[in-house]
Each structure stands twice: as structure tokens, then as C-alpha cells.
Design goal:
By secondary structure, the chain is α+β, with helices and mostly antiparallel strands. The protein has four domains: 128 residues, no CATH class; 149 residues, Aspartate Aminotransferase, domain 1, CATH 3.90.1150.10; 215 residues, M1 Pyruvate Kinase, Domain 3; 117 residues, no CATH class. The chain contains 20 helices and 31 strands. The structure holds pyridoxal-5'-phosphate. It holds the Pfam family MOSC.
Length: 725
């Protein structure tokens, strides 16, 4: 906007909401004037950051010169950005006669994306100038001369090019379905506001044992009036010390609960700066520190770069709101603390004898359950009482001093010397021939230029060619590929299926079907392994899929990857992995983590089983846990590796690799054990320039680490782990 107006020599002036509200209060009578210079005032009917609704009365007042955003003679027009507003609020254009109104249809009924509308008041339409024209907008024009006469109708004149006619057909059905399902926008407004009000009320009352709030909510209202507040809650989660838990962390945990949250600054840097107290200088400095809009660097120098937003739409239910609250409570509570205190609390003693068996039941079993909280809230009357009740619950396990120190040390580890002189060696080597399927463990294995030979050479895709991972299909870990180098075949087994074999030699026939696939935004060339194989996998998984293989003869197959400390031109060749050639984990770190998880789960857990969840290529064992995070380079036998960075874990570690069952506790435990981070293991890149398969990696080979020279501030890696493949 600023660029466009500057090009036309028009000044654009920033007006803060608070200035407008102030002007409205101390309004002065408008002076009569006959200046007709046009000015345009643009504002959102609802903030997409906080859900604050700005007064629609501004439209009339500004046009009537009762309210003047900038003291300048001329005639004011108003553009209302109603994109966020109209998704849950009625907008009567006969009352609020803005000159321009921008809306976006997917925000109203979820479909079709990419289609919006600019409504233009017929009175102002004749004044609009065109600086470009595309097909269909001209009544007549000349190729050889500067002659263009636009069509009469305003829509025809401005709809340049071919309109999205198929999507436009869908609009009528969208509006009809919305009306049929909800009975109209006023109902949607009341329904969504009620959900937001409930969620806000519970959320803002949650406290840790020490009285510290669990979330900081960014809002301009107290959610008491749907005319000034839309159904949006924007917040950051805090720990019991009041420190912010980064939005990426919250996002990752929410995904475990099937909750989608928006995080970051929501393309609304103004509101974000205002609510989070980020200065212009901070924004520039954060960019230099490597933070970009939309990445997962959520905290810099202890301060947030963004926040978490939840929104309610017409299809949201009370259960959705409860599930969200359950998620916040469960992730901020340890299992041991999920019980309400067994001794009656002061508020409870009063009502205890009158409790119905059902309420009794609810308060005694699933006590982190918001439902029971609601019962208590309803029973004990004033909200204050129940918040006192909540406070008596221990919301956070008292972290032992040792653990706390430990977490702090890991955060800013200053490597000085290796903690032990005991030789380190490779204890296990695993490859994952088919991305996301089971591991194939070996005692020695040739090294190729993309990692272990045949590691992640194949992957499964759906009918649309999109990679299927364990995230969507946990049963992939029940598929066991193994490779016979002598017979040059890969044999694939799965329970209840006859084993099937695939030749390792690449099918180089002309007619093979080359297709492009996307792995973590990188394009790779692949080819289909055929119908016979596809049928085998489709039968086992009970869904249509194809096995595809990365093609090795295609130029440009090497994925460009920028590696820290290397010239950007350095090219790293990757297979169908997401992140790096090798992933290394340390059994000492596994054992440390195991203790933590057992404490949380109160169930036995096998080390072997835990190792499998982290889907590493190389397993080693050192004296100290997390020693590996202090390494810059390592040599294993004749091979030399550079450490690319830590591996940031996702929900795949929640899947038991033997059974395919999911358990959220694992990511939660890792996060707790690592001081809110989910790093585990390190990525390696083979530096031997002449990497050829003449190198063999063997179990028992000695490992020689080289420590980082000095402590550098490390940016968290931006991508998800390799092990998701
Ligand atoms: C979503 C939104 C936009 C952008 O609309 P798109 O159709 O997603 O490009 C603009 N303004 C506000 C207030 C919004 O909420």
C-alpha cells in the first residue's frame, strides 16, 4: 500500500486505533470546507490478531466529517477490511455504507480458497482509474494506438483476466449451506462468542500452585461484549516462573491433541508489535539473528517473537473449546498432578455432602478434565471460589533443583573438554530403506554419497503423489524391509502378508514413469515401482498407495542444502530424508530420558524400544548424556562427518515402533527433560569429498569427536527431524 501510494505521490499516514478512539471522544465540530481532495481511510472491522472489533460507526462519522483521522482538508472515503469480521458477524451494508469493503470467502464458509471480493460503492465507482487492463474488461481498444475504452459495468471493468468461474459457482452453495446449518450470521456471532467467552474465562483463571498464571492473553477487551470482541483468543503459554514457552513448542504439543493453532505474528506485525512490546529495532535485530516471519524461532533473548492464536468458527463446538482447555491443562501438568487434592479443599467441604454420585465420580477420576472443572464451577457459584480451588491443585510438578540446573546447563553448554577418556564406539547401525517404514539393522554397511547405501531410497505415496509418513499412517512401522546385497534384492515383510522382493538394480528402461515428488519442499525425481508392489502395500495398509524410488541417474537430484559454516554453494546430496544424511543418537542420553519417562508414565520401558523410536542411523554410547550436542565434527573409522545441528523432534517419537501405537507422553517427557526443547540426537553430513561405496561403516568402529571451539548462540534448526522419514 505504502509503495503504491508513494508511486502516485500520495502520502500514507499511520493512524493508531487508540488515536482514533481518542479523537472520537474529544470530537470537535467539523469545519465547513469545500476542498474536494480525496482521502481514503482504511481499517479492519475486526483485528485478526486479537479479535478486537473496531466501531463500524467510524464509517458514517468519517464520511460526515464528524471524525477526522488526519487533520487535512478534503473529502474522506472509507475502505473497510471486513475479511476477519464477516466470518462470524453480520455486516449490514445499508447501515454501514463504506465506499469499499474487502472480504474473503474461505473465511466465511471454508471454501473456496483464493477467492475474495472487493465491494465497491456504485457512487464512487466512476472515479476509479485503471492503470492496467486484462482480457474481458474493454469495450474496445486498439493494438497500434493508445486507445482503450472500458466496459460500463464496474465489475466487468475491473475483473481483469479470466475469473475463477468454477469457484464462483460454489459461492451460492456456500451461502445456502451456511444459512441452512446455522440459521444466519447473528446466530453464528452469538454461538462463536459464547465459546470464546467460556474459553477466555477458564484460560485467564488458570494458575500454577504458586499463583502464577498459565497463559498471558493479548486482548483489548475482557470478552464481555460480542460487539467489540470477535471469537479469537491470542496468547502465550507461561511456565510457573512467568517465562514464556515458545509458540513452536505449544504448536507441536497442540498437534498431538489434534488441535490446530496459528502461531507467529499472523501477517499482522503492527498488532504483534503492540501487544508483545516489540520495537521496530527488535524486528530488524531479530531478522539479523536469523528469525523470519513464519519460522519457528519463537524466542530470542528470552523474549517472544510471536504468539499463539485460536479462533472459533460456526462449526466449532463446546467440546472443541473443552478439548483445547484440556490440552493446556494436560501439557502444563504432570501425570501425578492430574488429580485434584484428595483432602477436601475449603470450597469443597461445603458442597461435598450435597454432591450427587455423578459429580462425585467426576471429581474423583478424570480430574484434569475440564468437564469436572465446570461441574465444580457451577456448584460453587462465584468464579472466584473455583479459581481458589484450581489454585489448590498442584499444576506443575516441583522440579527438583538438580533437574532444573541440568536443564539450564544444557541450554547454554560450554564445552571445555570431553567428559571421559573412555573410547567411544558405534554400537548399532540402522537404515530405513523405505522412508517411514521399519529399521533394517546391520553390523556393517557401505556408505554412499547420500548416506548409508539404500537408506530412504524408497517411499510410499498416495494417489496424488504425496509422501505418506508415520504421522498419517503409524502402521508403516509394521512394514519390515531388508536388503540382501549379494542377491541384489530388497525383501519386504509384514504380518499376514507373503514377503515380496524388489530388485536393487534400478529400472533404467525408457518407459519407466518418472515423476516429481516433494520431500519437505525439495523436489526429487522418482519413479514408480509398479502395480504389483503397489497392490501389496495397498492391501496391507488398506488404502491406495504406490511405492516409488528415488532416481539416481537424474541430474539435479542432489538437493541443495545450506549447511551452517559452509559456503551456500556447498551441495549436499540427500536421499528421501528430510534433513540430513545421517542421524546419530547416544545411548547415554536415551538412558537419561528413560528415567524421566518412566517417572511420568509409571510403566516399565525397554531401552531398546526407546532407541527405536528415535529412528537413528548410528547409535553410540558415551559416559555423559547429551555429550554429543557439544561436538562440531566426528570421525568414525576412515569417515569424517560434520555435525549439522541438533535434531528437533516431532510426534513420531510418540509411536511405538513395534506396535504402531501412539502415546503423547513421549514428546511431553522429552520436552520436560530438555527444558522445553525437543532436541534429541544430532545430524551428520559426510565430509569425505570422494564419498564412494568403498567406505564401510561398522559396529565397533571407534568414534572420535571434536568439540566446538567456542560457544556460539545456536539458532534452532527450522525443519522437522529427519527421523520423520
Ligand atoms: C485474512 C485477512 C486478510 C487477508 O485475506 P486473504 O483472503 O486470506 O488474503 C486481510 N485482512 C484481514 C483482517 C484478514 O483477517
Amino acid at each position: 500500500m505504502r509503495g503504491i501510494t508513494a508511486m502516485m505521490n500520495v502520502l500514507s499516514v499511520l493512524v493508531q486505533p487508540k488515536d482514533m478512539l481518542l479523537l472520537e471522544k474529544n470530537k470537535e465540530p467539523a469545519k465547513e470546507q469545500n476542498c474536494t481532495t480525496p482521502h481514503l481511510f482504511c481499517y479492519p472491522a475486526q483485528s485478526n490478531f486479537s479479535g478486537t472489533k473496531y466501531p463500524l460507526s467510524w464509517i458514517r462519522k468519517i464520511k460526515a466529517r464528524e471524525l477526522c483521522p488526519v487533520r487535512i482538508p478534503g473529502k474522506w472515503f472509507v475502505l473497510l477490511d471486513a475479511a476477519a469480521f464477516v466470518s462470524t458477524s453480520p455486516l449490514d451494508l445499508t447501515v454501514h455504507t463504506a465506499d469499499f469493503v474487502a472480504i474473503s470467502f474461505y473465511k466465511i464458509f471454508g471454501f473456496p480458497t483464493g477467492l475474495g471480493a472487493l465491494l465497491v460503492n456504485n457512487e464512487i465507482a466512476p472515479f476509479l482509474r485503471k492503470i492496467y487492463f486484462g482480457g474481458g474488461t474493454a469495450a474496445a481498444y486498439l493494438a497500434g494506438e493508445d486507445f482503450y475504452s472500458p466496459r460500463q459495468s464496474i465489475a466487468e471493468r475491473f475483473e481483469d483476466g479470466t475469473v475463477s468461474f468454477l469457484d464462483i459457482i460454489a459461492l451460492k452453495h456456500g451461502f445456502d449451506a451456511l444459512e441452512r446449518l446455522t440459521g444466519g450470521m447473528e446466530n453464528i456471532k452469538q454461538h462463536t462468542f459464547a465459546l470464546a467467552h467460556y474459553t477466555y474465562t477458564v484460560l485467564s483463571t488458570l494458575k500454577y500452585t504458586n499463583g502464577a498464571p498459565v497463559v498471558h492473553i493479548y486482548s483489548d477487551t475482557d470478552f464481555s461484549n460480542p460487539d467489540v470482541q470477535g471469537p479469537i483468543i491470542n496468547f502465550n503459554v507461561l511456565d510457573e516462573n512467568g517465562d514464556i514457552i515458545g509458540y513452536s513448542q505449544v504448536d507441536k504439543m497442540a498437534s498431538l491433541y489434534n488441535i490446530h493453532v496459528r502461531t507467529g505474528c499472523f501477517c499482522n506485525t503492527g498488532a504483534c508489535q503492540q501487544h508483545l512490546g516489540i520495537s521496530n529495532e527488535d524486528i530488524k535485530r531479530n531478522l539479523q539473528a536469523g528469525h523470519m516471519c513464519g519460522d519457528d524461532i519463537d524466542i530470542i533473548d528470552g523474549r517472544p517473537t510471536g504468539s499463539v492464536r485460536i479462533s472459533f468458527g460456526y462449526m466449532s463446538t463446546f467440546e472443541d473449546a473443552q478439548n483445547f482447555l484440556k490440552f493446556i491443562i494436560a501439557t502444563q501438568l504432570s501425570k501425578a498432578d492430574m488429580k485434584f487434592p484428595s483432602q477436601p479443599t475449603p470450597t469443597k467441604t461445603v458442597t461435598e455432602s450435597e454432591e450427587s454420585p455423578m459429580q462425585n465420580d467426576q471429581t474423583s477420576c478424570h480430574n484434569a478434565d475440564v468437564l469436572s472443572m465446570k461441574t465444580i464451577i457451577a456448584d460453587t457459584g462465584p468464579w472466584n471460589n473455583s479459581s481458589a480451588m484450581l489454585k489448590t491443585t498442584r499444576w506443575q510438578p516441583p522440579e527438583t533443583e538438580l533437574e532444573r540446573t541440568r536443564a539450564a546447563v544444557f541450554e547454554r553448554a560450554v564445552p571445555v573438554h570431553s567428559s571421559s577418556n573412555k573410547p567411544i564406539s558405534v554400537t548399532n547401525i540402522c537404515l530405513y530403506p523405505i522412508k517411514s517404514c521399519s529399521a533394517f539393522e546391520v553390523t556393517q554397511w557401505p556408505v554412499g554419497n547420500q548416506g548409508l547405501l539404500y537408506d530412504r531410497n524408497w517411499m510410499l505415496v498416495n494417489q496424488n503423489g504425496v509422501c505418506i509418513t508415520q504421522k498419517q499412517e503409524p502402521r508403516l512401522c509394521l512394514i519390515h524391509p531388508s536388503i540382501d546385497l549379494k542377491q541384489k534384492i530388497m525383501v519386504i515383510k509384514a504380518e499376514g502378508m507373503d514377503p515380496i522382493a524388489i530388485p536393487l538394480e534400478e529400472n533404467l528402461e525408457k518407459e519407466r514413469q518418472i515423476c516429481q515428488s516433494k520431500v519437505c519442499a525439495h523436489r526429487v525425481q522418482t519413479y514408480d515401482c509398479g502395480e504389483r508392489i503397489a497392490d501389496w502395500f495397498s492391501e496391507f495398509l488398506g488404502r491406495q498407495c504406490h511405492l516409488i524410488r528415488q532416481s539416481s541417474d537424474f541430474k539435479g537430484n542432489a538437493t541443495q542444502k545450506h549447511v551452517k559454516g559452509q559456503a551456500p554453494s556447498a551441495t549436499l546430496s540427500l536421499s528421501l530424508v528430510n534433513e540430513a544424511q545421517y542421524l546419530l543418537i547416544n545411548t547415554a542420553s536415551i538412558l537419561y530420558l528413560k528415567e524421566q519417562i518412566i517417572a511420568r508414565l509409571e510403566e516399565p520401558l525397554e531401552t531398546e524400544q526407546l532407541i527405536q523410536r528415535f529412528r537413528a542411523n548410528i547409535v553410540i554410547n558415551t559416559m555423559e548424556p547429551f555429550e554429543e550436542e557439544e561436538w562440531a565434527e566426528i570421525s568414525i573409522g576412515a569417515l569424517h562427518f560434520q555435525v549439522v545441528g541438533p535434531c528437533n523432534r516431532c510426534q513420531i517419537i510418540c509411536i511405538d515402533q513395534k506396535s504402531g501405537e501412539r502415546n503423547k507422553e513421549f514428546l511431553q517427557s522429552l520436552s520436560n527433560a530438555r527444558g522445553r526443547k525437543t532436541h534429541f540426537g544430532i545430524y551428520l553430513m559426510n565430509q569425505s569429498s570422494c564419498s564412494s561405496s568403498s567406505y564401510i561403516l561398522s559396529v565397533g568402529s571407534p568414534v572420535f569427536p571434536m568439540l566446538k571451539e567456542s560457544t556460539k548462540i545456536q539458532c534452532p534448526p527450522s525443519n522437522e527431524e529427519k527421523a520423520s522419514g
